[in-house]
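Dear U.,

For the methods section draft, I wanted the exact inputs and outputs in one place so we can describe them consistently. I've listed the two proteins in the order they'll appear in the manuscript figures. Please don't edit the token lines directly; just add comments below if something needs changing.

First protein:
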Amino acid sequence: MEAVVEGLGLIADPYNIGLIVVGVLIGVLVGALPGLSSPMAIALLIPFTIGLSPVAAVSMMAALYCAGTFGGSITAILINAPGAPPAAATALDGYPMAKRGEAGRALGLAAFSSVVGGIISLVIFLFAAPLLAKVALSFTPAEYFALAVFALSMLASISGRSSLRNLIAGAVGVLLGTVGIHLTTGIERFTFGIPELSEGIGFVPVLIGLFAVAELLNQSATVHRAVERIRADVMRLPSWADIKRIFGTILRSSGIGTFIGILPAEGATVAAIMGYNEAKRWSKRKDEFGTGIPEGIAGPEAANNAATGGAMVPTLALGIPGSASTALILAALVMHGLKPGPHLLNETPEFLYAIFGAMLVANLAFLIIGFFGARVFAQITLIPRTFLWPAVFVFSLIGAYASASSFFDVWVMLIAGILGFFMLRHGFAPAPLIMGLILGKIVEESFSQAMIIHDNSFLSMLERPLVLLFFAMTALSLAGPALGTMIRRWRGNKDIEATAEGE
């Protein structure tokens, strides 16, 4: 109880509440602007939080994370241009409802569903994270190695169009994570005589380059693209009839979103798609989906915001990021001198309650901000990209330099940006590379420690049940896409045979 009071007391500080509100405003703004994303904003924000306490910094970024997920629904509903990937599913019914003249109702449904989904996931996070941390206290380096390998295998479905491309990008991230002095042997690797590389490649400049500079270059060809806009009326909270209609959908999607968020390397986009599909599956109005019905908005919105709370569970309890945004938050924690994992939560439980309080305040804040400012945020989409992207580039330069006061990091950012640009052009998503960069260090460190403990015998590691379980899950994760394709082909052949027999 003492930890609860202390943690919530940290958030009750007016200064921290102010930072949370600022994070929410930035998140909604970034989410509402097509082309910008929460990971990009968090990457740019990290260097500017150096002078803040760990609680204040993480609270601000967590608030941005929550609000950014909702902010994407504003443009998805009003202009059929999802500001964030998870909002793509919301546009399927949100935009048709707005075209009928019910933009305010659609925005209200999205906001209400997001808030309820977020609060449900936070309650689960509050109970699940400490339990998982206690279990993880019994983990040896062998279990952490197997878990990190499993998390890497989940990169196949994190984003992008191709599982193979995601895995390749993840492998490149792991390779980049090996640059520098090996912690166990002290041997320099891939430094090429450059002293700045002896400590490895910094997270922050790579994050900024891949998420900000690369997107800037990729969007340069669309600066003059026009979009159809719908007049936004004031956001209206759902009626009692709407709430009764969508409540079951919200509960179901919140559970789905939280579960998807807890899985390492999964995220809000997958949760939103599954939330929409399950809402349609359980609905009595399946034929009306895509025409603008409340369930089609509530399903993905509850799921994608629930995934934010779920993704924080493995991030804080295990030090394994649950999404691209939490990977950045994890990097921020490391930058502030903290090592996420079971020891952090068990030794400083007030940190857990502080983050819970921050995300709870953020969910309530973006409901209020969205209610009063939906029309304003809709007008923000009118900002010419010719002004927007140069501003993003300037912040990128400042952020890359400020992280370590090094011009070398600026060059790293620019190189990462060019690499990210070519990745986007060829169907490679940046998120798997970042996840690989973070998880690769965990894999290498835990593997080295495990081999020392087990006398350099890999087979002896397999004698531990949890190691075998994680490796089995890894095999299923990697084989999943192929098995899914085989099952679909088999069903297709069965349907063809059935049709032929009927004729």
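Second protein (the one for the lower panel):
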Amino acid sequence: MVGRSPTFRHFRKDKTMKLYSDEELSKILDTPVFHLIGQTADQLGVECYVVGGYVRDIFLERPSNDIDVVVVGSGIKVAQALKERLGRKAFLSVFKNFGTAQVKFKEKGGNIIEVEFVGARKESYQRGSRKPIVEDGTLEDDQNRRDFTINALAICLNASRYGELVDPFDGLYDMEDGIIRTPLDPDITFSDDPLRMLRCVRFASQLNFFIEDETFDALVRNKERIKIISGERIQEELNKILMSKVPSKGLYDLHRCGLLQLILPELTALDIIEKGPNGRAHKNNFYHTLEVLDNVARHSDNLWLRWAALLHDVGKPKSKRWEPLAGWTFHNHNFIGAKMTPEIFRRLKLPMDTKMKYVQKLVDLHMRPIVIADEIVTDSAVRRLINDAGDDIDDLMTLCEADITSKNEVRKRQFLENFRLVREKLSDLKERDFKRLLQPVIDGHEIMQMFNLQQSPKVGILKQTLKNAVLDNVVPNEREPLMALLEKTAAEMGLHKNPCSDALQNN
């Protein structure tokens, strides 16, 4: 058994759960869609149940749009019959290879309803694949194959038992206690389908639940099985962990069970503390990274900003040096981390488009505002930062502020105050530069010289024409296109160019 750090001990302060009787459940499901499904199943003489996440979220009082229905018989036939009852407003998709079907339709209020149908089944697995061998089965067989007890609950939709809860593995008690546990032997559950190991950590992270001891020990024993899972499926679960309210919980669980070493070894490499010749040690950059990630999560739901927080220090192990005067240094770790980012994204099958470039940019630039904040904040330094960060400057500042995790409160406050000054300088420069950029490069004095005019309404009309053209992005704020527009407008007003104006401009 791997020990638990007191820093990450499980406390479910936000626990919200409500217990319902079967009668109360029948009232909760007293909606047209569930009655239609039940009536359709009764018409065909088969049992049907709403199962999985939808049922779980009823008790956890969480919104859910995913409706999964298990039919003891053919789920496809029930879906087809439901489509006929709904008529043209419904759309049916059948997936014969998987024995599933989906019905999609719009309710009167405009809400889109999607219902997935599957026949009750039992599954068996071969060692080298997570693709199951599927056979028809009973409701019990179907619940046995579920990944976790909290996802194995079912509510009957047949009229005679409408609202009746079927909970063979005490999933309700596990929800009440905040526990993630497998219905059957966790070693078999995880070995059969290793993706369930990541789902286990993901649910614990999303719901702020604790992974039951026996289940956690099985994660440790079966971690090597994750190697048969594709990068696409791994990153899907990682993304959901990162989007948790407190993503550090999921990352820490992945680390302590050994899965993180197999899927993101660049992060586990940060969990090393070395002492220099004088006995001075550097901070644990792994736990620092988790703290930065949580800081970012409190201020932004941007998945790719959270990835930037996760990877911002991955270059530190390769850049670590002991210098007698300075102690431990990590020079250019931002540059090294930026170079590592594409390979990490490629391995996990994350998008290699602008999203990767965005993460790479933030990893590369995350030290710049800190350097600026630690010195005198000059216009030129901030302007160069704006130029390099572009539209992502605000996200970069969010990352940098999250990166201040010093235990020295005085230094922490000083950095944050300096960052406030940087933000003020950013805002001021943006406003000034914006106004400057929107001011046409040809002014009123030049217009008066060019057309031999005195101060008059005609000068104002010409100035306004140029200004409107720039503001409306009709022409760029450049001399040549603005001059062409000016001469055209002046000609339309009957104004003639002063022959001496070209000579005056050249001088």
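Candidate sentences for the figure legend, describing the second protein: The two ends are 84 Å apart (CA to CA). The domain at 179-263 is CATH 1.10.110.30 (Hydrophobic Seed Protein).

Thanks,
Y.
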